[in-house]
Amino acid sequence: MKIWVLLGILAVVAALAPFSGPFVILLLAQVLVLGIVAMSVDLLLGYTGLPSLGQAAYLGVGAYLAAILATKFGFGLGWDFWIVVPLGILMGAATAAFFGLFAIRASGVYFLMITLALGMCVWGLAYRWNSLTGGDNGLNMPGRPKFGIELANDLAFFYVVLGFFVASFFALQLLVDSPFGKSLVGIRERELRMRILGYNTWLHKYIAYIIAGAFGGLAGVLWAHLNGIVSPSDLILTTSVDVLLMVVLGGPGTLVGGLIGATIVVFLREYLATMVQWWQYVLGAVYVLTILYLPGGIMALFKGGRR
Amino acid sequence: MDANFWLIQTFNGVSYGALLFLLASGLTLIFGVMRIVNLSHGAYFLLGGYVALTVIGATGSWLLALPVAALTIAVIGLVMERVFLRPLGFDPLRQVLLTVGFAFLFQQAALDIWGGDNLIIQPPPSLSFSVVVGGLHLPMYRIFMIALAAAIGLALWFAMERTRMGAMVRATVDDAEMARGVGIDTSRVSMFIFALGAFLAALGGVIGGAFLGVYPGLDFEVLPIAFAVVIIGGMGSLAGAAVGSMLVGLADNFGKALFPELAYFSLYAPMVLILALKPTGLMGRE
Questions:
Q1: Is B262's CB within 8 Å of A123's CB?
Q2: Residue B237 lies in a domain
Q3: Do A117 and B94 make contact, defined as CB atoms within 8 angstroms?
Q4: Residue B164 forms part of a structural domain
Q5: Is the pLDDT of residue A2 over 80?
Q6: Which of A22, A188, A290, B32 is the most exposed, fewest CB within 10 Å of its CB?
Q7: Any CB–CB contact under 8 A between B157 and chain A?
Q8: B138 sits in which H/E element
Q9: CA closest to B230 among chain A residues
Q10: Rounded to two decimals, what is the model's pTM?
């Protein structure tokens, strides 16, 4: 049911996109890319009960991988874009596999803090490792890939991003509906009981963390090509917090909620900001009001959601 | 790389650590007593600097700006705690998002009131000279920062260890439920600690305004560093905040001087290791 509504809405958006302005198309693509990151955070927060405050790190490693390959080696600007995508996914997964060794040991507020610290480590490297990352200036992408179709065309690129979003959504939906996904929910609800039942809860959380990192890496590759520039400001703490808000605002444990949250936050940050000076009051108010009045997120308003 | 290099870098590191102590001691107390992860703490630091600029602009007195700025922000913190944080209960995720929301609101308000320029708080002439010790030029202002942080650290330690209020705070840190059981008004203790934390952060903002500056975005720049201090020292521990701020101050200075490409990594990687190996921090209690 939920899936058909989502696909219907995406189909309508895809059909209307050619008739909207270039700015709106870019914003829609941003929503979809951040929607992938938000769904990856939802896998952790909504299904496994792990509030990650550092998911921007995986967006970052994916984006920097694409940018470094493109600027230093001219790689990934033609058909080889389809090699960079799995490389980005691998990069996100590998980084998460390493970071997870530290992070999964922690729980509750310590998990928040250690993911914050890991995110800041990646930011610190991006910010200061000038020879590799271009430091504060970041790396300018030489252009979007072209292979038969020109992705330099924003509309064409939007459709590619849409394809990746839908694929990510189905992959994650399959995952959370699988027995593995069900055990993640069990861990969220009552980790001790799952452990007594014989589940290796550490391994379950570790695998979920790696999968979330992989989707973060995928989003990063798309993010690099979408914006044409990768800089440390893409992976500051605020990005991670924004993504967390997207999930809480949309409704944790729903996957679709992440997209709803991403739509609202991107609209406020990018669209409203071009119209009024005081947009950040609205963003701040959305944060505060969500926490005070919408504990289950928007999806909870149409039943479903997390219980 | 002679002896002077090491001495000067150590001196700079310690004085930066002194500033970090002002910022982080409040954050660690707030966490220890109330279990609140306060992401508005950087905003308190920034607002403190801005309020001080206004006071200095109106009266010309830097000395007056210190208490006025700190008290103003303490009141803001107090209201935030009473109205929003206290009813929220204990859920770190919701605290994080709520306090980030406030940080954004404060950021916008500061932008509307004080504009987007990079401002500097000029220290009074009586602190703007250098003393020469053994051939090293040491800015008096940095010596003052170290002295002030040491004085405040001692005062906090004395208040926590030797006064009745301090005993109540420690009891609340150790076991809030028990503390309520023996008749301590833990709600009042929390209110007091939150206001004190905001007070200290704003004080740090005024002091730091002389060499970090006061500008939009400073709030989210100092916030993760304050968390690094708190985590390395141990959440809730004053002694830990002192040790942590010295370590982070020195690591920051030597990191930037010796391996600039790893400068920030060398701050946050220890934070990760501490969290993974000993989550209670160097000085925290189990």
A1: no
A2: no
A3: no
A4: yes
A5: no
A6: A22
A7: no
A8: strand B136-139
A9: A113
A10: 0.91
Residues 38-77, chain B, touching A (beta carbon < 8 A): 39
- Beta carbons of B92 and A109 less than 8 Å apart: yes
Q: Tokens for B41, please give them.
A: 């703490």
Range B174-192 burial, b when 16+ CB lie within 10 A, else e: eebeebeeeebebeebbbb
Interface size A-B, in CB pairs within 8 Å, comes to 136
Cβ <8 Å between A114 and B276: yes
A276 at interface of B, judged by CB pairs closer than 8 A: no
What per-residue confidence (pLDDT) applies to B102? 95
For residue A116, what is the nearest residue in chain B, using CA coordinates? Answer: B224
Residues of chain A positioned with their CB less than 8 A from the CB of B231: 113, 117
Q: Bridge-partner residues for A140, per DSSP?
A: A229
User: Taking Cα atoms as reference points, which of A169, A189, A173, A195 lies closest to residue A307?
Assistant: A189
How far from the centroid of its chain's Cα atoms is residue B269's Cα?
A: 20
Evaluate if residue B96 carries a pLDDT over 60: yes
Contacts of B220 in chain A (CB under 8 A): 236-238
Task: Calculate the alpha carbon distances from A104 to A51, A108, A110, A207 in Å.
Answer: 11, 11, 10, 10
Task: Single out the residue of A195, A218, A247, A288 nearest to residue A44, CA to CA.
Answer: A247
From chain A, pick out residues whose CB is under 8 angstroms from the CB of B103: 284
What is the count of structural domains for chain B? 1
| Structure tokens belonging to residue A261 | 């949250």
Q: What is the pLDDT of residues B205-223, one digit of tens each?
A: 999 998 898 999 899 999 9
Query: Which of A14-18, B45-49, B252-256 holds the top average pLDDT?
Result: B45-49
Residue of higher predicted confidence among B92 and A203: A203
Mean pLDDT, to the nearest integer, of B82-96?
86
Instruction: State the nearest Cα–Cα gap between A144 and chain B, in angstroms.
Output: 29
ipTM: 0.89
Residue B168 counted as domain residue: yes
Write out pLDDT tens, residues A28-81. Answer: 999 999 999 999 999 999 999 999 999 999 999 999 999 999 998 988 888 899
Domain membership of residue B189 as a residue range? 23-216
Q: Which residue is closest to A245 within chain B, CA to CA?
A: B97
Closest in B88, B105, B224 to A237, CB measured: B224
Contact B276 A290 (CB under 8 A): no
**DSSP assignment letter at A277:** T
Q: Count Cα neighbours of B125 within 13 Å in the Cβ-side half-sphere.
A: 1
Asked whether the predicted pLDDT for residue A307 surpasses 70, the reply is no
Work out the percent of chain A whose per-residue pLDDT is above 70: 98
Domain annotation covers residue B139:
yes
B203 contact partners, CB below 8 Å, separation of at least 6: B22, B48, B66, B69, B70, B152
Residue of B nearest to A115 (CA): B272
Q: How high is the mean pLDDT of chain B?
A: 89
pLDDT score for B286: 54
